[in-house]
């Protein structure tokens, strides 16, 4: 009885699809992080100041702003959001073409 209810719960709330989406999201995040760190930033780094760009900080008295780490995460977010946007747009377009 409990097993049947549990299986119905999994099916109704599409838990397997959610788990797959979570795993794919984690994998795409790792891919985007690697792209930024290993491919994009080595091209941009010569244009910026010397030293590790992720460690760039602005210090004013006791205040320490780690803007390098922030910009790294911002670039990662923008790239990941762009990839998600493109994929979702293509999926929606494919669904519209399939229903006509």
Automatic annotation (TrEMBL):
Pfam families: MscL
Top-level taxonomic group: Bacteria
Any one GO CC term of the record: membrane
Keyword Transmembrane: yes
UniProt GO MF annotations: mechanosensitive monoatomic ion channel activity
InterPro entries according to UniProt: MSC/AndL, MscL_channel
Gene3D superfamilies registered for this protein in UniProt: Large-conductance mechanosensitive channel, MscL, domain 1
Protein name: Mechanosensitive ion channel protein MscL
Keywords, sorted A to Z: Membrane, Transmembrane, Transmembrane helix
KW Transmembrane (keyword) present: yes
Organism of provenance: Candidatus Sungbacteria bacterium RIFCSPHIGHO2_02_FULL_52_23
Subcellular location field: Membrane
Membrane topology note: Multi-pass membrane protein
Main location, first listed in the record: membrane
Spans traversing the lipid bilayer: 15-36, 65-88
């Amino acid at each position: 009885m409990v097993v049947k209810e549990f299986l119905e719960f999994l099916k109704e709330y599409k838990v397997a699809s959610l788990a797959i989406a979570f795993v794919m999201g984690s994998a795409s995040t790792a891919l985007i992080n690697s792209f930024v760190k290993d491919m994009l930033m080595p091209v941009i780094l010569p244009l910026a100041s010397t030293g590790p760009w992720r460690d760039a900080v602005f210090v004013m008295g006791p205040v320490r702003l780690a803007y390098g780490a922030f910009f790294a995460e911002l670039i990662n977010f923008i790239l990941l959001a762009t990839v998600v946007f493109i994929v979702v747009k293509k999926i929606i377009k494919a669904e519209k073409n399939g229903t006509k």
